[in-house]
Design a protein that fits this description.
It is a single chain. This protein is α+β, with helices and mostly antiparallel strands. The protein is 45% helix and 20% strand. It contains nine helices and 13 strands. The strands form three sheets. It has an eight-stranded mixed β-sheet. A three-stranded antiparallel β-sheet has the order 8-9-10, covered by helices on one side. α2 runs antiparallel to α3.
Length: 386
Amino acid sequence: MKENKTDNKTALNAPNEDAVINIDFIKKNVEILDDKLSKIRRRLDPDKINQRIEEIDKISAGENFFSNQSLSASVLKEKAYLENRLNPFMAVYEEFSNLKELAGLAIQENDLGLLAEIEQNLKTLEKTVLRLEIELTLSGKDDKLNAIVEIHAGSGGTESMDFASMLLRMYLRWADKKKFPVNIMEFNAGDEAGVKSVTFIVSGLYAFGYLKSETGVHRLVRISPFDANKRRHTSFASVFVYPEIEDTSEIIIDEKDLRIDTYRSSGAGGQHVNTTDSAVRITHLPTGVVVACQNERSQYKNKDTAMKILRARLYDYYKKQKEEEENKLQSDKKEISWGSQIRSYTLNPNRVIKDHRTGVTVYDTESVFDGNIDEFINGYLISRIS
């Protein structure tokens, strides 16, 4: 008699005779989710959060707690923030623990109907855990803020300027999909095509938290449409992302440290171009930080917007400087060199886009340039979970 071999795949007779339960899939996914939730738990530290919530409860129970409305509001806001971080995780953790125990029993008893249900629940839970991972990484002080994005074409002439414009379109399409409004503050058009540099603000919840992952050097390899001999070219563009700082109390700017220049606005075809010297360029002399704005109709408004960008740039400058002093390490937003690419966009000979920090690779290059970059963003954010 011929012996049948088993491979941990069990046919399910009801409700679909062709349905197959993959026990190995269930075991593997339980193991993966267990590992992910353990990492989240270590980073979140529920015991520490619960301890702080208990402290707040004791403080708020005091007789004179509400006599200082500003202080009481701040304390209660902290409690709400802590609960909003802790409760979703605890709910998912409890659901997974129950599912893990149930899966063990179902496998032991070969309960096909229950195994089918568990398999579907694991797939749903996997998406929930991914969302938790992303939310956990967006807990920084500045992550909720709007993002100020700068793109600069690298060496390579028209080819690099065209690449910079491709990146600009990519981010504009991404923002549009997120329904995040965008305001272009400064646009320096290329001599023949593309853009030399551009600064724009993306407004929306967690705009900076998401886009901070884009800071770095981006590299394009393709057959240049500007080369009559159809040779392959490599070009670069750098991207810098800063949080738009609303509270200026941390950044004090002395007027005597500024050099303010005015010039005539310029823009791409079809854009409004002022005929007066209304564009403003501000140089912060102690740090050498330079910002500009030309999109507003008046010099006053351009200066006001340029100062807003300058505050964000200086906030980032001093923050990174402090991190370097404390950690004695190079900051995340290091000085960009052409040998430190974060992502390569290869359109010839193969079509592939790869993030060198995370290994995330996408072959649908058109989709990426059309703004579908969440896979890269999520990959970077998740990689930050220790």
